[in-house]
Design goal:
- 7% of the residues lie in helices and 47% in strands.
- By secondary structure, the chain is mainly beta.
- It has a single domain, classed as Nucleic acid-binding proteins (OB fold (Dihydrolipoamide Acetyltransferase, E2P), Beta Barrel), CATH 2.40.50.
- The protein has a five-stranded mixed β-barrel.
- Strand 3 and strand 4 form a beta hairpin.
- The protein is globular and about 55 Å long.
- The two termini are 28 Å apart.
């Protein structure tokens, strides 16, 4: 069986890093991927999909230190769905996440880091990530 996910996208928020009771680091953040196409009338269309990413151990520490909102990264991992009972409503809740095995920062250092190191991305609209790649028409295959 195979459960493998590979994504390239932009962080929707800074990673939130915390520790488990046993002391293991865990980081979580959202990642936006974009799909672009032309409809039947030739109009450009775009759809953004948001993914919940979870990193553990050393990957979590690195994410907390180097990643920031707007940064473009490549994530490799696996899908996992968790469930719990909501204390207020009593309903069963579900959350699907990508458990990160590895990530790589893409683009230059200036893509999301202001001079002096650290900080938020200066580009991109406030309601979504900056442009994250070529249109489908620009891909040569």
């Amino acid at each position: 069986m195979l459960n493998k996910v590979m994504l390239i996208g932009n962080l929707g928020r800074d990673p939130e890093v915390r520790s488990t009771p046993s002391g293991q680091s865990v980081a979580s953040f959202s990642l936006a991927t974009n799909r672009r196409w032309k409809d039947r009338d030739g109009n450009r269309q775009e759809q953004t999909e948001w993914h919940n990413i979870v990193c553990w151990g050393r990957q979590a520490e690195i994410a907390g230190q180097y990643l920031a909102k707007g940064r473009q990264i490549f994530v490799e991992g696996r899908l996992q769905t968790r469930s719990w009972d909501d204390k207020q409503s009593g309903e069963k809740k579900y959350r699907t996440e990508i458990v990160c095995d590895n990530f790589q920062m893409l683009g230059g250092r200036g893509d999301s880091m202001q001079s002096g190191g650290g900080g938020h991305s200066p580009s991109g609209p406030p309601d979504g990530p900056p442009d994250s790649g070529p249109d489908d028409d620009d891909i040569p295959f």
